[in-house]
Structures are given as C-alpha cells and as structure tokens.
Amino acid sequence: MALHKLLVDDFEDDAYLLLAIHSNLEDYRMAFLLNQFLSINLKRSLYNLDFIDTKASYSVYEWQDNKRQTLWYLIANIFKRGEQSTANSASLFSTTTKVTKTYNLIPEHKNVNYFLKIENDNYNNIKTILSKIKKIPQVVTVYDVDVSTLKSKNNLIFN
C-alpha cells in the first residue's frame, strides 16, 4: 500500500499576484480606469470585506476572466470612519469632538490606497500589467508586493 504524505506547504494559498496602487481616486473611478487601460471588466461585487472587531468595511470589485481562468479583485486598503471622542478636562463640562479614525486592510502598507489581486495568474509578463497601470495619469505609483512577507495576508482571503 502506497503512503501519501501531505505537507502544510501544499495548502499554502499564495497562488496570486498582488499589486499595490497609490492613487487618491475614488474606488469606482479607479475600477473604471483599470478597465480601460487593462481591457478588463471589473464590477462592484455584491459584498464588502467587513471586519467585526474594527467595524471596518473595504470595497471590492471583481472580474472573472474565463478565457485565462483568472480572477481579478480590486480591494480598497483604507477605511475612514468618524467617531465621537469624549475628552474630560479640568473643567466642569466634558467636551465631545468628532475624530476620524483610519483603518488599513494590510497595516504593513499604510500608504497604499488599493490592492489589485490576480488569482491563478497565467500572465507571463507582469511588467506589461505594471506599465499599463503606470500610464493612468492619476496613479502615483504601482508595484508588486511579495505576499510571503505579509503578516496580515489572511485579510486577503475572502472567497
């Protein structure tokens, strides 16, 4: 009888490409421009990435490329929420001020606005994708992120 040994590394889900995009555009505008420049068809997904502990919600756009058997996701990295903060001073009355808190999907990359996740990547030349995104005038920079070095890569598992 043959013995088959399974290793934990066999189930590692790093089979995707992750691109970090720096841009101040709104999420729908970024998806529209990526669709134009990359000839893809990202659409707003029916769900957001919601985290109960921080009450943060990140927008997700997705597209399934049936020709190349590839899934594309545009995910917001920054979520801002206004919260009431009560400050007690030495005076008789407490003051309440509104504070904007910022939460990041991937805290290691706080300045990144969006991540473009490409699963089952069958593309041979990532440089072509990067150069096309860099041609978008509103994109400051875009680069490949090494997923194996991310501490919070579990936040990118959502389907």
Could you describe the 3D structure shown?
The protein is mostly beta strands. It is built from two helices and ten strands, in the order βαββββββββαβ. It has a six-stranded antiparallel beta sheet, with helices on one face. The longest helix has 12 residues, at 27-38. The two termini are 37 Å apart. The model has no long low-confidence stretch (mean pLDDT 83).
Features:
10 strands, 159 residues, single chain, mainly beta, 6-stranded antiparallel β-sheet, two-stranded antiparallel sheet
Lay out the secondary structure.
Blueprint: E1 16-23, H1 27-38, E2 43-44, E3 49-51, E4 56-58, E5 60-65, E6 70-76, E7 78-87, E8 95-104, E9 114-119, H2 126-134, E10 139-145
Antiparallel strand pairs: 1-9, 1-10, 2-5, 3-4, 5-6, 6-9, 7-8
Straight-line N-to-C gap: 37 Å
Number of separate helices: 2
How are the strands ordered across the major sheet? Answer: 2-5-6-9-1-10
Portion in beta strands: 35-45%
Quick recap of the structure?
By secondary structure, this protein is mainly beta. The chain is built from two helices and ten strands; from the N terminus they run E-H-E-E-E-E-E-E-E-E-H-E.
